[in-house]
Design goal:
single chain, 324 residues, mainly alpha, 0% strand, globular
Length: 324
């Protein structure tokens, strides 16, 4: 951004919206004021779209909730997001499969071949899809939702899911899961999050006719507003870096990053896409100076995150076409 005029900000957050999201979150997810979503509260369009994609893919629909939690856990493990990996272990406890929950969190292979395939597909979506075609929107939507959420969480939250890190104890994880059992097992009507959306966008081919596709299009539109926080050169740099990524391999430690002093925005967005767990307080502080705000910060992180999500989606589409 050196020598460039100050970039335009994403539109300021509209009034309202947030309370309705949190009310639906508490009812349908079972967790009041979940930090995964509170961290996006500076941007209601991002908050509502992220919630809608997770709700319509992971929580609602007809596909197995256990199966979708396995996929989400695989994504979170591949992305090195211990917060989310632990959260999915808790939610697997909530489904009643306590042994599976702990097996996955330890990094071991599930005994059931179908469970192994789902977990492995979450870690690497270039593999053959281990679910029927009519459930693809829910499984693919779940995986892409957590490729986005993992990056937001790793960029903006600590690794601890609960105060004091008490989630490291199996009894705590199991007890937390049991407290959510009734909510997890309740059947939710698809589409009820869509009236909350503040943005809209084109639905992808894998979910063009359903609420998952609508939510995904809205999230992509909201997240891409963050590109305006970078110069054209820096935004193109982030996109090009992500375009050369295989969708799985972590960013090498020796990879050259934009200098924090000269291009802090490009550095933050690239790390959010390729290695969000490496973002430091110094990285954030170098960029988040006036006129930038928390609203801008979540949009910049979201831009990097959605670049990665779209790369994973493109690789999935290519792998599917090659096998057809």
């Amino acid at each position: 951004m050196v020598g460039a005029p100050p970039p335009p900000h994403p539109p300021p957050p509209p009034p309202g919206g947030g309370p309705h999201v949190y009310a639906q979150l508490a009812t349908d997810f079972g967790i009041k004021d979940a930090t995964t979503f509170v961290v996006l509260s500076a941007s209601p369009p991002l908050l509502t779209a992220t919630w809608a994609l997770m709700r319509e893919s992971l929580l609602a629909g007809r596909a197995s909730r256990t199966g979708k939690e396995l996929v989400a856990a695989g994504v979170s493990l591949a992305n090195r997001c211990p917060f989310c990996a632990t959260a999915h272990a808790v939610l697997l406890h909530a489904t009643g499969d306590h042994r599976l929950a702990e097996t996955v969190l330890r990094g071991d292979e599930p005994e059931d071949p179908g469970d192994r395939r789902l977990l492995a597909w979450g870690k690497d979506m270039s593999r053959p899809q281990p679910f029927p075609g009519h459930e693809a929107d829910e499984y693919v939507g779940t995986a892409l939702a957590f490729h986005f959420i993992n990056r937001v969480v790793s960029s903006l939250l600590s690794e601890q899911m609960l105060p004091g890190g008490v989630e490291k104890y199996r009894l705590v994880r199991s007890t937390a899961g049991r407290s959510l059992a009734a909510t997890v097992r309740r059947e939710l009507r698809p589409g009820t999050s869509l009236p909350l959306l503040g943005t809209s966008g084109e639905a992808p081919p894998w979910a063009a006719q359903g609420p998952v596709g609508t939510a995904y299009g809205a999230l992509r539109s909201a997240a891409y507003q963050g590109a305006g926080l970078l110069s054209d050169e820096d935004a193109a740099f982030v996109r090009e870096s992500v375009a050369g990524w295989d969708g799985v391999t972590p960013l090498p430690l020796a990879a050259r990053l934009p200098e924090r002093k000269d291009r802090p925005g490009a550095r933050l967005a690239l790390l959010a896409a390729r290695a969000p767990y490496r973002i430091t307080d110094e990285d954030v502080a170098a960029w988040r100076v006036p006129p930038f705000t928390d609203h801008c910060l979540v949009h910049l992180i979201a831009f990097g995150a959605i670049c990665a999500v779209e790369r994973v989606e493109a690789l999935l589409r290519t792998a599917t076409e090659e096998r057809a």
